[in-house]
Design goal:
The chain is of the alpha/beta class. It has helices spanning 35-45, 59-62, 65-72, 83-86, 169-180, 199-202; strands spanning 2-8, 12-19, 25-29, 48-53, 76-79, 106-109, 114-116, 124-129, 138-142, 147-151, 154-155, 158-159, 188-191, 197-198. The N and C termini lie far apart (35 Å). The relative contact order is 0.15.
């Protein structure tokens, strides 16, 4: 089961639950704000969240992490270059707000490693690096379900900004071509700030043509 929850403090952001239907164990991806709303959804639906997974370290994707981590006593995971964003409010952009954010007790995942549920190893996600929007940009891919949680790397008909700390447009476009658009055409792409799209649809965009 995949459930989207749009949360907002400064801008709307899509958080996602990736849940095993039988056990109701799962992962929470990019809880950017409104910890209370997300915790209430978890309680109402009987979800057992095993880990928080982050696609990158910008404030609008990590804003609710600490409250949820403490409430559920669960690990937080992100790509290995995420330390600069987790520990530095300037890099994660929260220094521009009234509540600078730092994350503690983060587990940094190796590229292409697989994160599996303790409740069932049949439910897992592979972390694939997609730097360019940030240096720690990554997606979580499940071939079994044909879905990639792509964060702000790629949107429906667009791609992430590259004018912030660690951003580089040429790097992002090359990674989109090499890492995302090489997935099977029917793969559903779930992003941080747009509706769902597919690899097949995004291949038609002129800005991805080399």
């Amino acid at each position: 089961m995949i459930l989207q929850a749009t949360v907002m403090k400064y801008i709307p952001t899509n958080a996602y639950f990736y849940i095993d239907n039988e056990t109701k164990h799962g992962f929470l991806i990019d809880p950017g704000a409104q910890a209370g709303k997300l915790l209430e959804m978890i309680r109402e639906k009987g979800f057992i969240i095993e880990r928080i997974l982050l696609t990158h370290g910008h404030f609008d994707h990590i804003g609710a992490v600490e409250e949820i981590r403490k409430a559920l006593n669960i690990p937080v995971c992100m790509q290995a270059n995420g330390r600069a964003y987790a520990e530095n409010p300037v890099w994660n952009l929260s220094a521009q707000t009234e509540a600078p954010i730092t994350l503690s007790d983060v587990t940094y995942l190796a590229d292409y490693s697989t994160v599996s549920l303790a409740a069932t190893s049949a439910c897992d996600l592979t972390i694939i690096p997609v730097p360019g929007h940030t240096t720690d940009g990554a997606m979580y891919y499940t071939a079994k379900d044909g879905v990639a949680f792509v964060g702000d790397s790629i949107f429906e008909g667009s791609y992430g900004r590259t004018d912030m700390y660690g951003g580089d447009e040429a790097t992002l476009l090359q990674n989109i071509r090499d890492k995302i658009l090489t997935l099977p055409d029917e793969t559903i792409l779930l992003s941080g700030h747009s509706g769902p799209t597919t690899v097949r649809e995004e291949k038609t965009r002129p800005f991805y043509q080399a």
